[in-house]
Amino acid sequence: MGQYGSSSLQERIERRRKQDRAKRRKKLVIALVVVILLAAIGFGISAFSNRDNVDEPIIDDTQITQEKEETPETEPEKEPEQEVTEEPKKAPEGTPEAETPSDEPEETPETSDDTEAKGFESTLKAASENVVIFASSRIAAQIKSSKSDLSASVNTGEIDPNKPMIALTFDDGPHAKNTVRILDALEKVHGRATFFVLGELVDGKSEILKRASDMGCEIGNHSFDHSNFTKLSADEMKTQLSKTSNLVKAATGKGTGLTRIPYGSVNETIRKVVGTPMIGWSLDTRDWESRSADKVVDKVLKNVKDGDIIIMHDIYSSTADAVERLIPELRAKGYQFVTVSELMEARGIKMVNGRVFNVAVKKD
Ligand code: ZN
Questions:
Q1: Distance CA 186, CA 181 (A)
Q2: pLDDT class for 271, splitting at 50, 70, 90?
Q3: Active site residue 222
Q4: Among 259, 249, 254, 253, which residue's Cα sits nearest to residue 202?
Q5: Which of 78, 88, 226, 330 could share a disulfide with 335, CB 3.0–4.6 Å?
Q6: Which is it for the CA torsion 271, 277, 283, 288, positive or negative?
Q7: How do the residues of the chain divide into helix, strand and coil, expressed in percent and rounded to 5?
Q8: Which residues contact 60 (CB under 8 A, 6 or more apart)?
Q9: Pairwise CA distance, residues 54 & 147, whole Å
Q10: 146-166 residue pLDDT tens
């Protein structure tokens, strides 16, 4: 009986010890998970707030409105027929969010000496306290900066003339897939763009143009078949433009009010014949040349400034990829996405028929 009793006590003590050890191990594991999670959240927020550093571009009043007479640089060779092979694309990136902690791990660490474990435990505790301080200060800073972001009326689509804005422009479309992807990306932020379309591509894509127009996008004229206007007679030019404008009107209810001359070269005859303002560009992504989303994103982010007219081509899937990345990125920097006409109006620039406009910088 006594023997049985003492053995039972020993067993109980042994069991209690085991339980204690198991409990301590569990605590250690939980502490470790918490530290790792806090560190991850801290770094995530740190990366996000670096990316999101809102450097509001300041409108430089000393800059004079540029109306370069001839459009700059080159325009792509005509390649509208070329349909880029499509593959399923990833969804546009949203704002990163801190992950919620997952379940605690089940397994316990291997045998450890109690004193060692206690030392480790206190080190962990100290480390986790530091991480908590680090993480909470980053979170506080983040909340502070995101509050000021939200207060800017970026989610209504209304234009604030005192905030930076750009006109994204897309030539050589419409394209059945890529134009739609670009519209989807714009719609998410209540943004708008200007599409300089080719009349010969409108057939079968009227719905796309209608949707763009209903979203507030501007449909401009890029000729019927991308002819080189410097080689056309006045009548041929007029036909190219009127056919396209009529097709756009049939699709959207509105004709084209702006023209982008194919290849960008404008001479005196063109100036006289084209009965609308002509739109050039101030930031050339050369997307037709690189066919690389990375290069387009990089070029835009490095060069973009308030009042820019950015030229791209909505016939390339690489350009749609770039736009899906650029729109949230530029929005985070405070840019509004407006049409060319909205941009000019907001900057007090009156567009005149037969003249070329490349950029919109606020007048004094
Ligand atoms: Zn073109």
A1: 9
A2: very high
A3: no
A4: 249
A5: 330
A6: negative
A7: 50, 10, 40
A8: 361, 362
A9: 12
A10: 434 433 444 567 899 999 999
pTM of full prediction above 0.70:
no
- Residue 294 bears catalytic tag: no
Angle between helices 2-51 and 114-151 (to 10 degrees): 30
Percent of the residues in the chain that have a pLDDT greater than 90, as a whole number: 55
Q: How far is the CA of 191 from the centre of ligand 1 (A)?
A: 23
| Ligand 1 center to 325 CA (angstroms) | 23
Task: Pick the catalytic residue from 171, 284, 287, 308.
Answer: 171
Q: What is the mean pLDDT of the chain?
A: 75
Could you tell me how far CA 277 lies from the centroid of its own chain? 29
Which alpha helices (H) appear in the chain, and where do they start and end? 2-51, 114-151, 178-187, 206-214, 234-252, 268-273, 287-290, 293-303, 317-332, 340-346
Q: Please, what is the Cα angle at 220 between 274 and 215, to 5 degrees?
A: 155
Q: Among all chains, which residue has been given the structure tokens 């982010």?
A: 301
Å from CA of 214 to ligand 1 middle? 24
Distance 317 CA to ligand 1 centre (A): 16
Regarding beta strands 283-284 and 309-313, do their DSSP bridges make them parallel or antiparallel, or are they unpaired?
parallel
Ligand 1 centroid–CA 226 distance in Å is 6
Distance 77 CA to ligand 1 centre (A): 7
Phi, psi torsion values for 4, nearest 5 degrees? -60, -45
pLDDT at 331 over 60: yes
Residue with tokens 């007048």: 363
